[in-house]
Write a structure and sequence with these properties.
- The chain is α/β, with parallel strands linked by helices.
- The protein has 10 helices and 10 strands.
- The chain has an 8-stranded mixed β-sheet, with helices on both faces.
- The relative contact order is 0.12.
């Protein structure tokens, strides 16, 4: 009997240890850096490689800068910052850059920290990435004085825009596939991969993120900050997005200030909405930016 009890206790501790090890590995996978060499583009879409300094205290010591591409448009037509999703890089936003530049906009595509060619030790779910967005907006302000400026962010890129600590002074913002809270983002992904039992493991991952990032999960909740955006907003989400549900997107929209619009894309999931919706995406983005960026009499 004692032998059975001992074996049971050992089995229990083995299961707990295995769960902790798996959770640690998943946490590392979620927050680990994803450096990628970004290939030079073909000459049919000429870009200027840029490196933008980041002057915040947490990044000064690493002497790091934001890597990106700049495409110049027509003077007076406005400029747009494009910010990619998690575990991606600026190439993801290339199709958006092409159609926007064809309409005369200057476009800046950046790699967020710990992505692409921008240095960084760890993905921080918008916390440090917001410093890159602040630096990129300042760069556009200095490079194109007097121009109206917009930002389009996808998932992590959208969170980085919303979580910026300092006012961005943007004239328009497009947020795609944005989660309201880090807890819901983690739970949805666990549910997607592990089924209904998945969210049970959420506290393990959230506590890891807090430890790894030295930040409270509350600091990673876009819904707490979206009301601070002092710019017209277009919020985009898909009906079939299992990473950010329609109900979550609608809560984000309710928390944002006016003027604001929401576009729920039928059949859209948590993927490149431009690639999915094509011309309709371009028409909606064009109409929104035309209204808020182009100079009107």
């Amino acid at each position: 009997m004692r032998r059975l009890i001992l074996l049971g206790v050992l089995a229990l501790f083995s299961c707990i240890a295995a769960i902790l090890i798996i959770a640690f590995g998943v946490g590392e996978l979620l927050s680990g850096a994803t450096p990628t060499a970004v290939n030079t583009l073909s000459t049919d879409f000429p870009v200027e490689p840029v490196q933008i300094p980041v002057s915040t205290h947490s990044r000064e010591e690493k002497n790091s800068g934001v890597h990106g591409w700049l495409v110049r448009g027509t003077q007076g037509d406005g400029a747009v910052l494009l910010v990619h999703s998690i575990r991606s890089n600026r190439v993801e936003m290339l199709s958006r850059a092409r159609f926007l530049n064809e309409q005369g906009y200057s476009v800046l595509l950046i790699d967020l920290q710990a992505h692409g060619e921008t240095p960084g030790d760890r993905i921080t779910f918008g916390l440090r990435e917001s410093e890159d967005v602040e630096a990129a907006v300042a760069y556009l302000r200095n490079t194109f004085p007097g121009e109206r400026i917009a930002a389009i962010g996808v998932s992590l890129g959208a969170a980085a825009i919303v979580l910026a600590k300092n006012p961005l002074r943007l004239d328009a913002v497009v947020l795609e596939s944005l989660h309201p809270t880090i807890k819901e983002a983690v739970e949805n992904r666990l549910r997607l991969h592990l089924g209904q039992i998945g969210p049970v493991f959420s506290p393990l991952l959230l506590s890891q993120l807090s430890f790894r990032l030295n930040a409270s999960p509350d600091e990673l909740n876009p819904i707490s900050r979206i009301g601070d955006l002092n710019a017209p907003l277009l919020l985009i989400s898909g009906t079939d997005d299992q990473h950010t549900t329609m109900a979550e997107a609608e809560r984000l929209f309710d928390a944002a200030r006016q003027p604001k619009e929401i576009w729920i894309v039928p059949g859209g999931g948590h993927f490149n909405m431009h690639a999915y919706a094509g011309k309709e995406y371009e028409n909606r983005i064009s109409d929104f930016l035309q209204w808020y960026l182009r100079k009107r009499d």
